[in-house]
Amino acid sequence: MAPDRILTNASFVADGDRPIRAVAVSGQRIRGLGDLDEVKDTVAATAEVVDLGGGVAFPGFADSHVHAVNYGRSRMGVPCWPSDVSSVGDITGRVADADRTLPAGRWIKGRGYDPARLAEGRAPTASELDLPGGRCVVLDSFDFHRRVANHAALAAAGIGAGTPDPPDGEIVRDEHGDPTGELLDGARALMDPVVPPWSEEEDEQAIEIATDYFLSHGFAYVTNAAPLTMSHRGEEVAAFLRMSERRALRLRFTSMIRAELLDAAGDLGLRPGVGGPNFRVGGAKVFSDGAFGPRTAAMLEPYSDSGTSGTMHIDLGELEETIRKGARIGWQMSIHAIGDAAVETVAGLLAAHPPAGGTRSHRIEHCCLTSADAVRFMRQGGIIPVPQLSFMRFRAPAFLAALGEERLAAMYPLRTWIDAGLKPVHSSDTPVIPDAAPMAAMATATARVDASGRVWGAGEGVGFDEALATMTAWPAEADGQSGDRGRIATGYLADFTVLPSDPRPLPPDEMAETAPVMTIVGGDVAWRSESLS
Ligand SMILES: [Zn+2]
What we know:
The protein is α/β, with parallel strands linked by helices. The protein has helices at about 35-40, 70-75, 90-100, 125-130, 150-155, 200-215, 235-245, 260-270, 315-330, 340-350, 370-380, 390-410, 415-420, 440-445, 465-470, 475-480, 510-515, and strands at about 5-10, 20-25, 30-35, 50-60, 60-65, 80, 110-115, 135-140, 145-150, 170-175, 180-185, 220-225, 250-260, 275, 280-285, 335, 365, 385, 495-500, 520, 525-530.
């Protein structure tokens, strides 16, 4: 067990007005708080004193929806993010480099391409990704709604001119009807049976990469929102469990399972909440619609730049049956719903089927646009919205064309939700948005300002303490752990996010720039910024 510690030289943001300058920690939990002399008696006399550099310590921040394993993998394959490449030529160059270094027979996997941000304004084609040795190449887009494969990979999956589109996706075709290489939404799954799975060792390596990333952004808790890829093997939960068993997790994780695994999980007695302080099984994830980028999120009114309104990606009877099945055995159902039509439908179904005997409420992941009916259903069911203010911050210009000004200003209506008694939880959806910075999200939650300085729906802004609750107390409640985390109080886990100074009086642009300097998990300094000497 870790030795006792006293954390000092910081201003701790705890309940009440009493200034807290020191916290004593034993067995990962807070044993005393006050000033240094006061807390000394609550732990062993040999307790190590840790200097927090004069910063401001908040309860450890939580990011309630990320794809941790996908993030790690995205840094392991060929990175094709807008920060890495600016043209199709850059991508083919990187693929050619990988072709020279990888052993024969290995697939080249890559991640992050955004057709709109490549010089050509389109994805690479299968032909452009073909390699002289015939190696298979498959690249996923930044938002996991697109995937492009070369001819070797298409052939391996048996995808050709005669392959029909699946009901929930599209094989993009040229004027002769031949696949161009791009597979949209559900069509990506046609590739899954032939893409070689990542090994157990690679899964753990991905979790390590993600751990370093989130700790360095000040997060002590992360909810893994199930794989973005279509594989249903449960390998992510298995990797977390192996690492948890070895006490190798340095960050506290919750992981959802995909709802397709509910029966298998039930057979094994796997229940939400199973695990220990560093890893717990979370909810069961279901996709109900698409996304704004490809105009596939299900809307009540058509997109502003096309006659389409998107569509639900799942049969409603099947969705209700899945929710009913999960709720009956106490699962927190976590439903991906983005468009206002999808959110309204999902909220109605969730409100009708609360989790049995549950300490956790159902969640709506993304929950971008909520009609008055949707908010009413959510209030009835105590449903948790899981927004990503980072999308408003970084993708407002891209969403403007799809949604128009009015709908964009109504996106993520935190004020409306909180006034209705809902308790939204912050999330970044990393790696879909390649920036998890918590204070940037906080600045957008309070001032509704995007990265260019434009304000969207100022009336939906919330106070700092409310924005903070979306990263601390409310995620703890969402995970059924209100008595364990989310506050700085005696008996709570000693998890802290340390900022260099108090962000509360700062204007939004300066608040957004404030980066955490230390992340403390169970009293251990799990990460410290190089800016601290
Ligand atoms: Zn996601």
